[in-house]
Amino acid sequence: MQSRSHALPVLRSRRVRRGPAAVVSAVAVAALTTAVPPATAEARTDVALEWYDATAETIAAAGAPTQSTNSRTWAIGWLAAARALRATPSGVDVRDYRDAALAGAVHTTLVTLIPARAEDLDARLRRTLERIPDGPAEERGLAAGAAQARTVLAAREGDGLDPASVNVAFPTPEPGPGIWQPTPPAHSPGLQAGNRRARPFLLERADQYRLAPPPALGSPRYRADLAEVRAYGSADSTVRTALQTETAAFWYGSSLTLYTGPLRVALARLDRPVAERARLVALFHVALVDTQIATSDSKYAHLRWRPVTAIRSADIDGDPATEPDPDWTPLHTTPAHPDYPSGHATYSGAAEQILTSLVGARTAPFTLTSPTAPGVTRTYTDWRTLTRENVDARVWSGIHTRTADTAGVVLGRQVARHTLQNAHRLFR
């Protein structure tokens, strides 16, 4: 028991373990068609799902106020787990070792980054360890996972993804046609501007996939965008349907929260070795961190005003065809950062690309609920529908133009493809 007491001195009684975890190589893979077999009395607990849930619940209970910081926590923990699972030492039970390694990696990451949840996480680890026989497989796996977590944590130290760095003060630009300004009702200064200064996991630079400028003011595309959001995104719209209003509300909250469910579905149904399943979760969140960095770069490079500003200030956009409406109000409150591109859409594009490449485009039906649409349950059979709904939802909420949404999907997919093409750099 010496190696365990050295790795985790507060946990001297028992083991680790967690079933499969994550994904294929950096290129595509087979479609996800295998259903999870029915549980039996002898069925072994899936440690990958156990610690996936532990990660999600820990972040929900005491995570950071910034989405990119929480994505970073996911990425570090599951990257450490995937690295610990690359090889199994000879002379030990393979599954016991892998379960212990996965739990050790994720546990060490979470208690380090979210120490307020240490007591709960320690209890979870004890429960996992109690299911693994004492011996070298458990001890060596636990030690390997913890060691990989410490290595990744050290490598990411000072990467600029902490809340203070992400939300570093951004000076409001001088007002002008098309230029972002703080939006009602709070008129808060720009948030998340610091993401563009953070160190990516795999991107070479934050501006590596910077989007081309948004449509010129007064152009046909600009007019169409503004006319659509003015009509369908207004708080008192007479053309938006009840279903469209529901969609806007469903996707109004954090995309990180809503994509936790679909990723878990993919993880549960992926009938592959635990190392590949851990890679799925790791690559998903590595792509999401880098996507958020790239999103911030394009947002603050182009500084395009939000629809509420554009519609209320149409008299200064130089286009006589657009009339100002100083009382226009969007269905939902506009977030405090520029319009182009939509962060929700970049997140969706990246998530769709990772899931499609690594588990296939379609899956058996699964349901999803949303904290911003109480009582609503939606059923999906593919990942792209989630992306389409995100694009529509931000327009119907009145907080993004359609061009900002569609451009965001393109950016997210580009970053995700880059992640997959360069995944070998994470696991060497």
UniProtKB/TrEMBL annotation:
Any one Pfam family match given in the protein's UniProt record, by short name: PAP2
CDD domains registered for this protein in UniProt: PAP2_haloperoxidase
SUPFAM superfamilies found in the cross-reference section: Acid phosphatase/Vanadium-dependent haloperoxidase
Domain called Phosphatidic acid phosphatase type 2/haloperoxidase: residue spans: 286-423
Keywords, alphabetical: Signal
Signal peptide: 1-41
InterPro entries: PAP2/HPO, PAP2/HPO_sf, V-haloperoxidase
Protein name: Phosphatidic acid phosphatase type 2/haloperoxidase domain-containing protein
Protein species of origin: Thermomonospora cellulosilytica
